[in-house]
Amino acid sequence: MTTDPQGTPTNPDAAADGVRLQKVMASAGVASRRVSEDLIAAGRVRVNGKVVTELGRRIHPDTDKIAVDNIAVQLDTTRRYVMLNKPVGVVSSMQDESGRPDLREFTDQFEERLFNVGRLDAMTSGLLILTNDGDLAHVLAHPSFGVTKTYIAKVEGRVSAQTIGLLQSGIELDDGPISADKARILTSPPGDGFSLVELTLHSGRNRIVRRMMEAVGHPVVDLVRRQFGPLHLGTLRVGDVRDLTKAELGQLLTVSRAETKD
User: Fold this and answer.
1) List 64, 96, 121, 181, catalytic entry
2) 147-226, which class in CATH?
3) Known catalytic residue: 121?
4) pTM
5) For the chain, give me the number of helices (H) and strands (E)?
6) Are domains 17-70 and 147-226 of this chain identical in fold?
7) pLDDT digits over 160-216, tens only?
């Protein structure tokens, strides 16, 4: 067994340069160096997918990926991740050419230059992620990675179980077939009133929920995105923004890394 000058066992395969793992973890806000050392020794830390228990292990924060208890850790402290409950009437753009209200109202308060992950149409409210992490944004927004979004739709008429089955089995739209990953009725009062339907899907096609409900005879009156991947809108009020918690960010990064690995 080899040791470093302080007598700490080292891995001969570890990089000779780089930064000590526990120091990187502390800088990223995971825990103090001492607690980080305990996490490493307990086998709860992975570097690039492999468990590391050597306290002398050095890593390259710019390229190596860390996970603690299988939850990803962001080592780049210049990255910012914000959740917005977008109001109706705001377009998902940083500068609308037609002069309509846009996202600058919510991003100007941050020092970082943030941009939106995906889009919500102007008449749809709900969860929108703002970030300066382009790699993460690409994975979350591109439909090929299969990150799901959940919507609550208030629609005209009484939605039946048969209609829910049709949404899940698939319908044909002008731009091709589409099916919901999940669909369920939240409320469906008797008569010709309004129903509430929850739809989960990974498609990124334009106005897809509105077009799906229109196709099955239940036009959307009001639409809210409540969930994006592992993130939930919760009690965030319309028009409010907040930074993601460390737990939320860890879940989001974990989903992102899992998708790019597949």
Assistant:
1) 121
2) alpha beta
3) yes
4) 0.85
5) 7, 17
6) no
7) 999 999 999 999 999 999 999 999 999 987 777 899 999 999 888 889 999 999 999
